[in-house]
Amino acid sequence: MKPKGLGRGLGAILPVEESAVQQAHAVQEIPISQIIPNPYQPRLEFAEEELEALAESIRQHGLIQPITVRQVGDRYELIAGERRWRAAKKAGLTTLPAYVRAADTTEMLAFALVENVQRQNLNPIELALAYKRLIEECGLTQEQVAQYVGKSRPTVANTLRLLRLPPEIQKALKEGTLSEGHARPLLAIDSVELQLELFRQILAKGLNARQVEALVEQYTTPKAPKSARQPSIEEIHLREVENTLSYRLHAPVQIKPRPGGKGEIRIPYSSVEDLQRILELLGVK
Fold it and tell me: Could you say which of 11, 12, 72, 228 has the lowest number of CB atoms within 10 Å?
């Protein structure tokens, strides 16, 4: 069975000549002063603490994994390994081991993208922008992009849809204060103002992804025609109890009354951790 790793479609979509492959496997020592960043680098943020930690490791052990570059005039342009290159400069290295290979614009962006995706270094917006560039600048289809990164086409499409969200929500996705699972349900809302209002509720109340979905459903599910019958005092009281419990447990609690004063209370949970959290709030060990 063939492995289904990330980037498995690179060779199939962009065939590489045998001589280029042989050259790419030859490691050379490149002066660090002659190396310039990859202009197609999809990663926009490099955490200073992570770079310093890697720099310290390089000081002690050297750079174990070579970077990959292409020659442009008398300089070498990074294809993959910008984080290692930045850390090596901090560590004071003067040369770096590198694979030198030929690469066009599509390959430059694709290799940088695949390297970052493999290391899970891209936030959802950086990933969406990288997919967008592969489509717009390299003329690839969503299906081909999916082959590059080893994901399904619907997954790529869903990531691209995040770029439709307002800048404030995209900023939260970049900074990690909002997850993709929290943000995706907001795409079902047509109004930007309502998207932002719900986004602020999510942060203020610390809602989980399941609660966000339930919240969005309140605004997207067609409302049933209003009944002429007014709710009883008991029904109004139960709704108030539902709201109180939902707020305290951070979960959409439902109370289902039955004839004879009987009924049940439903508290859905999204994971084992979520169940543990609810049990602790209820005082159950």
Answer: 228
- What backbone phi and psi angles, to 5 degrees, belong to 98? -150, 145
The residues annotated as belonging to the active site are 82
- pLDDT tens-digit readout, 250-275: 778 888 888 888 888 888 887 787 78
Summarised one tens digit per residue, pLDDT across range 31-53 is 999 998 877 666 666 778 888 88
Mean pLDDT of the chain: 79
Express each pLDDT in 134-172 by its tens digit: 787 677 888 988 887 778 889 889 999 999 999 999 989
Domain 10-159, CATH number (from 3.90.1530.30, 2.70.50.80, 3.40.1390.30, 3.40.50.300): 3.90.1530.30
**Where exactly are the structural domains of the chain?**
10-159, 181-219, 233-281
Q: What is the DSSP string of 53-116?
A: HHHHHHHHH---SPEEEEEETTEEEEEE-HHHHHHHHHHT-SEEEEEE----HHHHHHHHHHHH
